[in-house]
Amino acid sequence: MATDGTNLISLLEALLAPHRPGDELFPGVRWLSSSSEAGLRLALDVRGSVLHVELAPVDAVQRFAARSAHFAVSYRTGSGSAGRPLSDAEGMALCRALVPLLQRHEAEVLRTLRERAAAARSETEGQARIRHIEGGPLLSPAQWRTQRYYTLSHYVGCLIGCRFCYAQGPVGLVRHLEGSPEVRWGSYVDARRDAPARLAEEFATLPPGPVKFSPIVSDPYQAIERKLELTRACLQVFADHGAGFPPLLLTRSKLIARDVDLLAAIPDAYAGVSLTTVDDAVRQHFEPRAATVPERLQTLATLRAAGVHAFAIVQPQWPGPLDALADAIAANATSANLGVLESIEDAGPLLDAPGMVQARDRSWQAERKAALRQALLDRGVEVWDGELPPALCTSPGA
Ligand code: SF4
User: Fold this and answer.
1) How far does residue 40's CA lie from ligand 1's centre (Å)?
2) What pLDDT does 394 receive?
3) pLDDT for 75-102, tens place per residue?
4) What is the CATH number of the domain that holds 324?
5) What are the distances in angstroms from CA 261 to CA 52, 218, 235, 242, 303?
6) Residue partners of 46: CB distance under 8 A and separation at least 6
7) Do 163 and 216 belong together in one domain?
8) DSSP class of residue 37?
9) For residue 95, which of 2, 231, 240, 314 sits 20 to 30 Å off, Cα-Cα?
C-alpha cells in the first residue's frame, strides 16, 4: 500500500486506489482532484457540477452524510461550485456511494499509517518532538482550478507554531488516524530523511511540472532545518536533476537566505516570504516565533538581489499601515500573492486583543485584500492569484 503518513494527498489516494484523480468513479461522476488544505477533501465532477467531499475520522465529528468503519463522509456544494447547484439528496447519495470504495482499503491504509508512526524514530530538541519518517512516495500531484503542480512535504508539522495556522486541522487529523498522542501545534514536526534521494528517483520517472514545498503543512525553513538541512539537500537535487521541475518555496523564516546560492542557480525558482503586516508589534502578537518584519524585508531583498523570483505573500491580512506595506513589497519583491484568514483555529484570544478584533471579520479581510491589491497594482507590482505565479502555469506538465 503506497501510503505515506507525511503526505495527506497520498493518504486520500491510497484510500481510493486503484482509482486516481481524473478517473470516473461512478457513471457521470469523475474524481477531479484531492486537497488537504481544509481537511481531507475530494472534488468530484457530477455531470458538470462540482461536489466537494470531506473525510474525517469517524470519532472526531458529530454530523456526516455517510460513514464507513473509520471515516465520516460529508459534502459541500455552494460557493465555488460550478454548474447547477446539486441537491442535498444528490450529495447524500454520492457520500453513500463512496463508502464501499473506502471500505476496500481503509483498514489496510490505517494499519500501514499506524505501523509507520510506531516505527518512526523520535527525538526531542528542547521542547520540540522530531519524528524521522522514511518511505512512500514524495511528490504528490495536486490541482487548483486549471493549475497543476506537485507538492513536496518533506516536513509535516511546524515548530514556528502560529496559532491561526490552518494546517493544524488537517495535520492533526492524520495524527489522530495514526493513533499519535494529541500534542500542541508548534511542538512537533515529522521529517522525511529520505526526501532528497527519493526526489532524485521521482524526477527520473514523473512528467515535469512545478513543485510547491511544504504547502500549508509546514515551513521549509523552520528552526530544525538549520540542523537537518533537508530543504537545502532537496534544492541541491533540483539544481542537479530538476530540469522541468521549477520549485516554489514559501516561508516566515529568514533562514531561506542561507540557500540563496542554490536558489539563484535553479532556473525559475520562486521564493516567497510571508509578509502579513509592516507593523512589527502586530507581527509579534500573531507570529511571535517567526522572523521580524525587518528580517523578512531584508530576506526578500537578498533573494531579489541574487536574481531569484522573490515574491511576498500576504495571508492572512493583519492590521497595520496599508500604504507602507504596499511600499515595502514594491521595494523588495517582484510579485505578490494575497489571501485572507481562512479559519481562526487557536487564535481566538489573539483576535480579541485591542486593535486586532477587526481581523476576525471576513468582510474586513476581503476589503483589506482588495485595497492592498489595488495599492500594489498602482505601484507596478504583479499580483497573482491561486497556487502558482503565471509564469509557472505555462511550465511543461502544468
Ligand atoms: S509558519 Fe506557516 S506552516 Fe508554520 S505555523 Fe506559521 S502559518 Fe503554519
Assistant:
1) 19
2) 61
3) 987 544 456 778 899 999 999 999 999 9
4) 3.80.30.30
5) 42, 23, 10, 16, 9
6) 28, 29, 83, 86, 90, 94
7) yes
8) B
9) 2
Where does a domain end: 93, 119, 145? 119
Say how many Å lie between the CA of residue 216 and the centre of ligand 1.
Answer: 7
Q: Does the structure show a pLDDT above 90 at 188?
A: yes
Q: How many domains does the chain have?
A: 2
Residue whose CA lies nearest to ligand 1 atom number 3:
218
Distances in Å between the alpha carbon of 50 and those of 96, 145, 173, 369? 17, 11, 24, 26
Distance from residue 91's CA to the centre of ligand 1 (Å): 33
Task: Name the residue of 219, 277, 350 to mutate for ligand 1: max ligand atoms within 8 A of Cβ.
Answer: 219
Q: Is the pLDDT of residue 148 over 80?
A: yes
Whether residues 153 and 234 fall in one domain:
yes
Reported pTM: 0.88
Classify residue 285: in a domain, yes or no: yes
Provide the pLDDT for residue 85: 76
pLDDT > 90: percent of the chain? 68
Average pLDDT over residues 149-158: 91
Centroid of ligand 1 to alpha carbon of 385 (angstroms) = 20
How many Å lie between the centroid of ligand 1 and the Cα of residue 162?
5
Q: Which residues line ligand 1 (CB under 6 A)?
A: 158, 160-162, 165, 167, 218-219, 252, 290
Residue nearest to atom 7 of ligand 1 (CA): 165
CA 214 to ligand 1: nearest atom: 3
Residues 112 and 134 in one domain: no
Tens of pLDDT, residue by residue over 337-386, are: 999 998 898 999 999 999 999 999 999 999 999 999 999 999 999 999 88
Q: What b/e readout covers 361-374, taking b as 16+ CB neighbours within 10 angstroms? A: eeebbeebbeebbe
